[in-house]
């Protein structure tokens, strides 16, 4: 017996109405809060928003209508990018061995981190009890590359070749020092689970450009170890369910439960779905739960994906030269290289947001060996993705993002040797890069001190990073909001400012 | 094996030991001078011992230095100077020491002043040898007067205060040329680190003719094909960008090859001004303030968009009023029939003026089936990759004045299409991946710089 059953309902007129039309939350949303919404609406200047659309509101406006208007006003600016591919390097890649060249550290090898630099910062439990914090210079050598003469570590020889396409931001900082809050913060703008991921916000705000594929697709490198990843990182939070990221896996079943069971014909499936859709529509008329809309949409999407997914996963028409470009791993489904190639194919099909995750960047000890291994597994394919997007004419309207959830410390965690040391988590500054649509190519933005411990110029907070991405996609981050549990939310919460200096 | 390690070890003692004779000799000359004072006359007695110590320690240093020179790579010229100087120094020390000895002075008497002069000679020699040694270890530019005279120019704070030669031209040369063409390296006997040196030219004479970039050797060399033997910069060093070349060309063409020329007084043409502003990093806010730069003025009736979506078009509204559209037609392989697609494309006519991005990739259309393009006067970005089109397509896009990006990947076009497209005012990028256009290098020199060929 469900809670919708008559016997469980009180028989007052209001509840009769709920029973007839709505469940509790949507009832409240649609009626009693309407008046408050109107007041709020004028407070936030939604009158201005409305003036853009033809119909002016008269009287009470429901949350649902307000939400529709917010969407109808998008995009706020002519977008530079129509798709995003976000290469998430989970674990926190060290800035010292990648992009933030700090030659002065060589002479300070083994010396104690000056208190003037640390500034009394609280460290993680992993290195707080160390009796000494000895400075560890990068074991990797740096050279200047490209027209921009950008310094890049010799662990990233392929990335170095495309450095003129990159906009390297060396002054990103975050509020969080541990993996889970930091990665959740990067993905959703908040450290606690439950808010929508960037991809979900974009899918919700901008819709889909390809009705046969989800607009937010997630690819995780197989055999990853280190800090765990959870599906909630690409979750839709309180946004309608169809905006959650859909993970494509390696192997013969890229999307779980998508294929028909053995011996079950596609026509039968279609017939079944038609009837199911009718049933859902009847239920929807009765209950009015938006999640039923989402479910109807998802069943239809899944049916279309039965043909579109095998089509996009098929790499048989890729040339030998393409596989060579991405490296030998690209033939091995589920590797980072294969995922980069797949990402290009998805972007070619106008999937709005593709997010790759590659784990294992958490080098607390044995950093030289560990980071060299990580770079070797990702460098060639990352550069290949840039090159491939560029020659296919996709880089000019695709934004590529590379980065982790925080940086690493200048001091060695554990024992320091010239060729072996570790680095702890460091939220105060780290490097990321963006490339392609909307960002200036071949520049470095922001500076850190000689220790890469503090930012000395142009800090970029995670909220600023989010605001900037949204701007490139045509969204004013302050205007794309969604009301849930009594307040409005946005990706950048209550802060964030666009960084105009890196926009092209 | 053991011997060579011992040799290396002893060799590495050279830099340590070499400072002993330096110290001795400096003490010696100070004592020598002081001994002219009556009350310090007794210092004269130490001279002999100091000279002997200097001579012996200098000789050992020479020996160790010889071992060191065998174990490492040094500049041979400087090494020879240093070596000969060192040996001469040791010998001189021995000679002066001997000259002061009683058994020799009984045969020939050397006036005291001559001995002092010899001492000074040794000191000069010491300075010379020491400097050569320093050059060997730290490089010849480590200690030079250039450091004193060279003024580090602070990058200009704004376009108005920037100087044409000092901040723009010299900065380009510093970045790309001066590494090999400087006072000490002088490849091709050319120094590009100052305006007077630039005017002097190199081995082959003058490198620029004021007013005539096409007659200037420097321009010829940087504009050659990268594979050409005479191309500069050579040895795979980073070439100059088209923008840098354009700025250099303008500077030579202007004929105003002098220092201290403020950009604000030069009356630069707008394109050059923008180029330089971009080069100096003063061109950012303007382009990113998102003011619409489009010619589209009208809004589109929603019904047309619904109609298009129903027909299978993906319609992305990039801006609402005026309506800017990004349209794509994406069909599954088995649903593509070029004739049918041609019919569908007719639906674009009512919104043709509002389309600024269009993607017709992979539809196997022929040239003549793309007639609708001619109506899309405001089109900025066009993808026609994987279609059955050839060079003829140029005539269908020729009148699209705002088109800046044209994708012709995986089509049958040849180099001819580029000649047809030449001169389109907005066109910046033509994609030609997997086409028969195979020789980008030769094209590069025969076609305008504005078109960037992305063939990788």
Write the layout of secondary structure elements.
The complex is a heterodimer of chains A (504) and B (456).
Chain A: H1 13-20, H2 24-30, H3 34-43, H4 46-52, H5 63-72, E1 83-89, H6 115-118, E2 142-145, E3 150-153, H7 157-161, E4 166-173, H8 179-188, H9 198-206, E5 216-220, E6 246-248, H10 266-287, H11 290-313, H12 320-326, H13 336-348, E7 353-358, H14 367-391, E8 398-403, E9 407-412, E10 423-426, E11 430-436, E12 443-445, E13 447-448, E14 455-457, E15 460-461, H15 462-472, E16 482-484, E17 487-489
Parallel strand pairs in A: 1-7, 1-8, 4-12, 4-15, 5-6, 5-7
Antiparallel strand pairs in A: 2-3, 4-11, 8-11, 9-10, 13-14, 16-17
Chain B: H1 2-12, H2 14-17, H3 19-34, H4 44-71, H5 76-100, H6 102-105, H7 112-138, H8 145-149, H9 164-176, H10 195-200, H11 217-223, H12 242-254, H13 270-280, H14 285-288, H15 302-310, E1 313-319, E2 324-329, H16 338-345, E3 355-359, E4 381-383, H17 394-397, E5 405-407, H18 416-421, E6 429-431, H19 440-446, E7 452-454
Please state the structural category of chain B.
alpha/beta
Proportion of beta-strand residues of chain B: 5-15%
In quaternary terms, these chains amount to heterodimer
Overall geometry of chain A = globular
CATH class of the largest domain in chain A: Alpha Beta
Order of helices and strands of chain B: HHHHHHHHHHHHHHHEEHEEHEHEHE
Question: How many structurally independent domains of chain A?
Answer: 2
Work out the number of β strands of chain B.
7
- Would you give the CATH topology of the largest domain in chain A? Alkaline Phosphatase, subunit A
Please state the CA-atom Rg of chain B, rounded to the nearest Å: 37 Å
The best one-word shape of chain B is elongated
Structural class category of chain A: alpha/beta
Number of helices of chain A: 15
What count of helical segments of chain B does DSSP give? 19
CATH architecture of the largest domain in chain A: 3-Layer(aba) Sandwich
Ends apart, CA distance between termini of chain B: 51 Å
